[in-house]
Design goal:
The relative contact order is 0.14. It contains eight helices and seven strands; from the N terminus they run E-H-E-H-E-H-E-H-E-H-E-H-H-H-E. Helices cover 47% and strands 15% of the residues. It is α/β, with parallel strands linked by helices. The chain has two domains: 208 residues, NAD(P)-binding Rossmann-like Domain (Rossmann fold, 3-Layer(aba) Sandwich), CATH 3.40.50; 33 residues, no CATH class. The radius of gyration is 17 Å and the shape is globular.
């Protein structure tokens, strides 16, 4: 196993499940010191347990925080720096799918909830982590966007709007901070079989959600769901020094879904 993250400090949000969890395990196996953030304390504990099973010497800081709360975000950044002295990589990943509905029927409160977590939370994280990385003169940020951030997704106005915003923040900040040695990019996952995608399928298909899933993947040229580990490999690469010159890129990992009409 590579040690490309040896002595590197990696901060991740949404680390209590899904893509955050598997990505945390991956970079831990490659030597990273970790600061893991999630609103779900039990999920964080589960992630730490899984990490220590494969990387017993790993240093893992757990921080329970709501990414939609600016003060909480500043605090998780400050706590990471206080503990480790720096932040080399940031997987800005926490998000929710929101409810599915036509735009005219989409609740205002629900829309604002999705925006507050998926877009505001990403902005707050970038705001405070970028200040640390600018002072260091180095760092890498990977934001989680979505296929829904580069094309329309029916019945998901809040989610799609938030992820389009993440793409814009990524590209804009990358232009601003490249001169300070910081690279910023986003991943755009398609249908990856995570708890979030499973929940979306249950909204679509109810008790028959597995059948809904079979229909859903037909839009994908590879005719299958992605595996979380496949995303973790990409995240680890983008956070590493090997990807320093990849800046302002939004990288689909979707089996070709975003290019199929």
């Amino acid at each position: 196993m590579s040690n490309r993250f040896e002595e590197k400090v990696i901060l991740m949000t949404g680390a209590g499940s899904g893509l955050g969890q598997v990505s945390a395990i991956q970079v831990a196996k490659e030597g990273a010191k970790l600061a893991l953030v999630d609103l779900n304390k039990d999920g964080l504990e589960a992630t730490k347990k899984l990490i220590l099973e494969v990387a017993p010497e790993a240093e893992v800081l757990l921080i329970t925080a709501n990414v939609a709360d600016e003060v909480a975000v500043k605090n998780y950044v400050d706590e990471t720096v206080k503990t480790y002295g720096r932040i080399d990589g940031f997987f800005n990943n926490a998000g929710i799918e929101g409810k599915q509905n036509l735009t005219e029927d989409f609740g205002i409160d629900e829309f604002q909830k999705v925006i507050s977590i998926n877009l505001n939370g990403v902005f707050y994280g970038m705001k405070y982590v970028l200040a640390v990385m600018k002072e260091q003169g180095s760092g890498s940020i990977v934001n989680t966007a979505s296929v829904g951030g580069i094309r329309g997704v029916g019945n998901q106005s809040g989610y799609s709007a938030s992820k389009h915003g993440v793409v814009g923040l990524t590209r804009n900040s990358a232009i601003e901070y490249g001169q300070f040695g910081v690279s910023i990019k986003a991943i755009a996952p398609g249908a990856i079989m995570t708890p979030m995608v499973e929940n979306s399928l249950k909204q679509m298909g109810g008790d028959n959600w597995e059948e809904a899933g079979k229909e859903f993947v037909k839009v994908n040229p590879m005719q299958r769901f992605g595996i979380p580990q496949e995303v973790a490999y990409l995240v680890a690469f983008l956070l590493s020094d090997q990807a320093n010159f990849i800046n302002a890129a939004v990288i689909p990992i979707d089996g070709g879904q975003s290019y199929k009409y």
